[in-house]
Design brief:
Layout: H1 2-17, H2 33-36, E1 49-59, H3 71-79, H4 82-85, E2 90-101, H5 103-106, H6 113-119, E3 129-134, E4 143-144, E5 153-157, H7 158-162, H8 167-175, H9 252-263, H10 266-269, E6 276-279, E7 286-288, E8 308-310, E9 323-328, E10 337-343
Bound molecules: zinc ion.
Amino acid sequence: MRTKLLISFTLAMVARIGISQINCGTQTPPIDELSQINPQAKVAPLNNATIKIFFHIVRKNNGDDANSISVSEAVNSFFALAPIFNPQNICFSLKGWGYINSNLYYNDFSFNYNDCNSLINTNVNTDAIDVYIVPNSNSSTQGIAFSGIPGRSLIIQKQAMIGGKNIFAHELGHCLGLYHTFQSTSSNLPWACPENINGSNCDICGDLVCDTPADNNGSTDGNCNYTGGGGYNPFTNNIMSYYDGCLTQFTNGQGLRMRDVIANSQTLLDRLVPDNITITSTTYPLIIGPPSCNSSSPPPNCPAPLYNLLEIGKSKISTSGNVIVNPDVPNNNPNNLIATIGFI
Ligand SMILES: [Zn+2]
């Protein structure tokens, strides 16, 4: 009996080690919102955009965070987004972070519907994408953009955040309107619309992006070369694919689609960093940044994300990098401060 258990355990470990695909739990919605918009009502894609993010770190009921992600680990994951999204003129601003003390979410989070649904409705930010980070669990699901495509939130395991495989960027890609590169091609549900290998139907089938080749979600060798056969030749380095350890970049078509979705989604427009920010908070210090991309000044792409610690309304105002902050105090009312952020 003991031998049998040992063999089962060993096989399970081998199977786990042998996993060569990431496992995202994001479900495809029944329709693509963007293609449903009346052409007359549709707005042109944004040239660039900066989206706010807020981290929710799950701890035990008593605040024990032994298995939780640390703030510095979370912030490092935030910085890792820059080289992936900035070439597509998309930036992120870290609004802040907070804690959710819950044994239910802390202990072996299952990623089942009820737990996901309750978690993403906890401490919701209406002006930032909520990122809920649970400790590592036995679930094979590493992350999920549970609020849909596009969406306002995601849940992710700690290891997927800090593992260096860009699964955080993958889930954010869903939030900004992207489907898997193998959408409908390796799985016909819910859209029975596989992309032809020659891409002839790329605008209406598959992931609806034409510069991502058809992908049947096959296999790769140790060097991220595609070995799945079938005549396919997918980009194994694409962030929205499942090729574990190979995900590094978006295509320009995906960048354009994200900026198109943002422009046409009120949920995402509500989460943009505006050029002008009216600060009404009297809580100091304030954290603002990075600068909005909505500037006609160079650089054309977004600067590397950075955030600035500001104490507005007091004597000390610090800026850094390529950001200038011009505080103004209308009527000398410290509760009505305006900070204008732009490139210098
Ligand atoms: Zn996914």
